[in-house]
Amino acid sequence: MVAPVPSAAPTWTLRLATRYVPPDNSRSQYTDVLVTGRTAWFFGGSNFAGPGRPVAEVRSKGRFHTSQLPRGLHNWITGASAVSQNDIWAVTFLDGKVLHWNGSAWKVVRKGGWGTRGQFTDIVALGSTNVWLFGGHGRAHPGAGTWHLIGSTWTRVRGMAADIAQASAVSATDMWGIGSIRGTRNALLRSDGYAWRQVTPANLVGFTYSFVLAIGPRDVWVAGSVSGIPELGHFNGKGWTTVTMPSAVPATSMCRDGRDGLWVIANFGRGQSVVLHRARHGAWTSVPVHATSSNEVLACALVPGTSAVFGAGKAAAPAGSAAAVYGFGRTP
Description:
The chain has about 325 residues and is an all-beta fold. It has strands at about 1-5, 15-20, 30-35, 40-45, 55-60, 65, 75-85, 85-90, 100, 105-110, 120-125, 130-135, 145-150, 155, 165-170, 175-180, 185-190, 195-200, 205-215, 220-225, 230-235, 240-245, 255, 260-265, 275-280, 285-290, 295-300, 310-315, 320-330. A five-stranded mixed β-sheet has the order 1-26-25-24-23, with no helix packed on it.
C-alpha cells in the first residue's frame, strides 16, 4: 500500500526550466543527473523530437549556468558518470561521442572501433583510465555494444556482456549490469572488473530488468517486472528478496534518499506526476511532482552527506517541453 504525502510534508519542487530553441516546439529535457560534492550536473538534449544537440547544466554555489560542450555534437547525452569533480564522463546517444570534463573544459575523447548507427545507453567511469561504455539494443536502433577503456585504448567486450543496457558500480572490482538474452532484458550480470558472469537468483526467475542500483557490496537493488507486474529485488550480500511496487509500470530509475531508503521513479505517463519513496522500514509514500504528467522527474541523485535530492526531467512549455531541474529538501 502507498500512502499519500501529508499536506505539510516536503514535495518535489521545480528549480529550473529551460527551453532550448530552435525549433519553437522542441522537446528539451534532462535525462541524467550527477552530484559531486556540492555541485550538481544535469545532462540531456535540446530536442528529443527531432534534430537537436546535447546539453549540460551546472548548479554550483547556489547558481545555475550552462556548461559549454564541444561544437558539432548531435542528439543528446544518454549517460554520465563522475570519478571526481574534475573527472566526469558522458556519452551521446547515436553519434558515439564520448565526452570528458577535466575540471575546466569538455573535450571529445578519441573513439574506439564503433560506428555511428548503434546507440549508446550508459557509461560508468571508475577512474580516469578505466571507463566502461554500454550500448544496449533498442526498438529503433541496434546497440553499439560494450566497450572498456583501459589507459588510452578501447576494447570491445563480447559474449555475455555484449548487450548491456545499464550498469552500476560499487567499485572498480564490483559492478552490476542489465543485459539481454534473446532480445529481452532478462539477464542480471556481475563483473569483477575483468570478466562478466550471469547471476540467476531463484527469487527473480522470470524477471525483466529495467534498472540496477549498486549502493554497496551488501546493498544492491534491481527494478523490473515479472509477468508485467512491477517489482524490486534486493541483494543483502547473501541472497535476494523481492519487494512489491505500488505502481502500474516498472521503475526506470532509483537513487538513495540519505536515510537508508530509496527514491523510485516509475512515470505512468498520465494523471498526477509523482516520485515513489520507500523508507528504510519498507513503507511506501507517493510524493507529488505536478498535477499532470507534463512535468516529470526522470532521474535523481542524492546530495552527499544530506537527505536532499536533485532530479532531472522535463516540464511543460507552450509547445514541446522544457528541460527541468527538480529538488527535494534543502538542495545547495
